[in-house]
Design brief:
The complex is a heterodimer. Chain A has helices at 7-16, 23-44, 75-80; strands at residues 85-86, 89-90. Chain A is mainly α. The two termini of chain A are 45 Å apart. In chain B, strands 1-3-2-4-6-5-10-11-9-7-8 form an 11-stranded mixed beta sheet, with helices on both faces. Chain B is 38% helix and 13% strand. In chain B, α9 (305-320) packs across α12 (371-394). Chain B starts with 7 loop residues before the first helix and ends in a 9-residue tail after the last helix. The radius of gyration of chain B is 21 Å and the shape is globular. The chains are: A mainly alpha, B alpha/beta. Chains A and B meet through α1 and α2 of A and α9, α10, α11, α12 and α13 of B.
């Protein structure tokens, strides 16, 4: 049902996923993703009323550990891998409207 | 060149007995890597200094009368999506280039504790997304048996490293076939264990409900040994099964007499190359000759596995890969605001296929499409689990091809993502169900390239699966035996 997936859809999805695409990328991805979604139509067209979803192969239960202090990863080592750090915290550019 | 044995079990026995040093074993394998990895490109990084230090420790233990463990002195290659403390771990992506993890994956700790020598990080399709290793940011890996062909993927580097003799054993990860398919294409053994049997702590996540770490080796027994070593409960993985590790080695020789083994009819027809299908039939004959009862079985929902997988896996990936935002690790492309920095970083850091899957997943999860795509795919997953349950009521194991064809040429499928995805048609249903499966080399196809036969078992059925694998191994035709 590639008719449903438009170039505008792809541009919107790229924006949601924080990806910048060129015009050529948009054209190519629209075509390629449409082909994959066409193939997925055999799933989308199945009548699955009354079938419960399976999101995981195991019956998941909350796993708790005892409230005991254990050694974690080293803070300085973690910070040493970040692109930008200030006062032992991750540093990012402006988030809201303030001046950078 | 040397009398260095080729299997992990032989190497460990020689090193433990003191008849061979870990250093000699390592030097021999490093020489092979030096001689041929320029051509194969199995490794993103060869850990020469770390490996030499680890070998020295093993040799000192032996000299002191201590036992270094069941993998004493055995060189082992690690897929480059397994975290290694202080050693670059890239997922073959620009976005993680230069990153040094602050911890070891649980499997890395376990193999090191067993005396193995980690010799390097192997190439993969970026973030394990692909079936040919052509999606690596650091160039493709070549199939050691014919360098004009792909090694399969995504664990192509780990499969090629074993096939080329760079290491007798390696670790990969399998989300939709990423261990079994490259094992088949390179002519080695590859195992995807039961979901939860092996800790995923420190495996960089692609699709968390499907990912599982597993072994590659040249022999069935070596994979059994490595799986015994890495499996078992880990409190750091909330999906880890709290049960003892299976005993695989001790039952390897028990044969298949009386076992019921089913051909999956949905995975033997359209889309499977005739030479591959012929080898699978020959493998079933070999199992029958060893006393197994062979029958046909239908797993109807398997036909929908591929479609469901290519909605579920990208959906989980789009969520898991949101963390690569240029803030805490990896590369950053500067921009005036954080939102622009996130987008600039991700656009420069991710390759084509990763972007495609992130977008597919974001779309499948987005308002208005969630029910039609992701929601339905989860229900299909239920049907697949039910169909396997029915099949395993009548059969102990199932048998299929691992891959629909032998290794294909570079560039054959890169322009059409869907044709690449179709490669995973036989391997994907297992991941959706969370069951174990493995690929065992069984002769060659019409082109002389290796064919892999896939054995499937119900959850925690590894011991039975390995018994059948051992029978196939001893019955397998030589790769150069003329196909008829």
């Amino acid at each position: 049902m590639s008719a449903r997936l438009t170039r505008d859809n792809v541009a919107k999805v790229a924006d949601l996923a924080r990806l910048e695409l060129t015009d050529a990328d948009l054209d190519r991805y629209t075509e390629q993703l449409s082909a994959v979604l066409d193939h997925a139509e055999d799933v989308a067209s199945l009548d699955l009323d009354g079938v419960l979803p399976t999101s995981h192969p195991l019956p998941l239960v909350n796993v708790l550990r005892s409230d005991v202090v254990v050694e974690g990863v080293d803070r300085e080592e973690v910070l040493s891998q970040a692109p930008s750090v200030e006062d032992r915290r991750f540093r990012v550019p402006a988030i809201l409207g303030e001046e950078p | 060149m040397s009398a260095i044995p080729l299997t992990a079990i032989e190497i460990a026995a020689a090193v433990r007995s003191g008849s061979l040093s870990a250093r000699e074993v390592l030097d021999d394998h490093l020489a092979r890597i030096d001689a041929r990895d320029g051509e194969i490109n199995a490794f993103n990084l060869v850990m020469v200094d770390e490996a030499r230090a680890a070998a020295a420790v093993v040799d000192a233990q032996v000299a002191a009368g201590e036992d270094p463990g069941p993998l004493a002195g055995v060189p082992l290659a690690l897929k480059d999506n397994l975290c290694t403390h202080g050693i670059p771990t890239t997922c073959s992506s620009r976005i993680l280039e230069g990153w040094r993890p602050p911890y070891d994956a649980t499997v890395v700790k376990r193999v090191n504790a067993a005396g193995a020598i980690s010799i390097g990080k192997t190439n993969l399709d970026e973030f394990a997304m692909g079936s040919s290793t052509e999606n690596s940011a650091f160039g493709p890996t070549r199939n050691p048996r014919d360098t004009s062909r792909v090694p399969g993927g995504s664990s192509g580097g780990s499969a090629a490293a074993v096939a080329a003799g760079f290491a007798p054993i390696s670790l990969g990860s399998d989300t939709g076939g990423s261990i079994r398919q490259p094992a088949a294409l390179c002519g080695v053994v590859g195992v995807k264990p039961t979901y939860g049997l092996v800790s995923r702590y420190g495996l960089i996540a692609f699709a968390s409900s499907l990912d599982q770490i597993g072994p590659f080796s040249t022999t069935v027994a070596d994979s059994a040994l490595l799986l015994e070593t890495i499996s078992g409960y880990d409190g750091r993985d909330s999906t880890s099964i709290n049960a003892p590790s299976p005993s695989l080695i001790e039952s390897l020789g028990e044969g298949v007499d009386g076992l019921r083994i089913g051909f999956v009819t949905e995975l033997m027809g359209e889309g499977i190359a005739p030479d591959v299908a012929a080898r699978v039939r020959q493998a079933a004959d070999a199992l029958a000759a060893a006393g197994a009862q062979i029958g046909e079985v239908s797993v109807p929902a398997a036909a929908y596995g591929l479609s469901a997988y290519y909605l579920i896996a990208p959906a989980e990936a789009s969520s898991n890969l949101a963390r690569y935002d240029g803030v805490r690790y990896g590369m950053r492309v500067d921009a005036p605001t954080t939102a622009e920095m996130n987008a600039a970083t991700r656009s420069a850091g991710f390759g084509d296929e990763v972007k495609r899957r992130i977008m597919l997943g974001t779309y499948a999860l987005s308002a208005g499409y969630y029910d039609a795509y992701y929601g339905k795919a989860l229900k299909v997953r239920t049907l697949i689990v039910r169909d396997f349950e029915r099949a395993y009521a009548d059969f102990d194991l199932l048998i299929t091809p691992t891959s629909p064809t032998t290794a294909f040429k570079f560039g054959d499928k890169t322009a059409d993502p869907l044709s690449m995805y179709l490669n995973d048609i036989c391997t994907i249903p297992t991941n959706l169900a969370g069951h174990p499966a493995m690929s065992v080399p069984f002769g060659g196809g019409a082109d002389g390239m290796p064919v892999g036969v896939q054995l499937l078992a119900p959850a925690l059925g590894e011991a039975t699966m390995f018994r059948a694998a051992a029978v196939l191994e001893s019955a397998a035709p030589a790769l150069d035996e003329v196909w008829s």
